[in-house]
Write a structure and sequence with these properties.
Layout (H helix, E strand, L loop, with lengths): L1 H54 L5 E4 L4 E7 L3 E7 L2 E6 L3 E3 L1 H9 L1
Antiparallel strand pairs: 1-2, 1-5, 2-3, 3-4
């Protein structure tokens, strides 16, 4: 009877070790899935957007984060001077400027 109890205790201890390993394997798998479906695509989008902003030049049509359409008049180190109407210019941060979606769509059709 004592041998049976000791055998059960050993099996429980081995099972607990397996549960611990399966827990860590599951956590690693969750992180890998999270990385490939959430972190990696977002980083890729940010790099593309940064590359697009760096390639903007005078005369490009843009949209600000606030929804203002305009044309780049001057490119500075961290800002753009944008003409939004005749004799009306604004200075905006490069991070708040996107390429004009209508212009990008017409470029893709060509």
């Amino acid at each position: 009877m004592l041998n049976f109890i000791l055998l059960q205790a050993e099996m429980a201890a081995e099972g607990q070790g397996q549960n611990q390993w399966s827990f860590w394997i599951m956590m690693i798998l969750i992180f890998v899935v999270f990385y490939f479906f959430m972190i990696r695509p977002q980083t890729k989008r940010q790099k593309e957007l940064q590359k697009q902003r760096e390639s903007m030049k005078k005369g490009d049509k843009v949209v600000t984060a606030g929804g203002i359409y305009g044309e780049i008049k001057e490119v500075q180190e961290t800002t753009f001077i944008i003409t939004i109407a005749k004799d009306v210019t604004i200075k905006v941060s490069k991070e708040s400027v996107f390429a004009d979606a209508a212009e990008v769509a017409t470029d893709e059709k060509k």
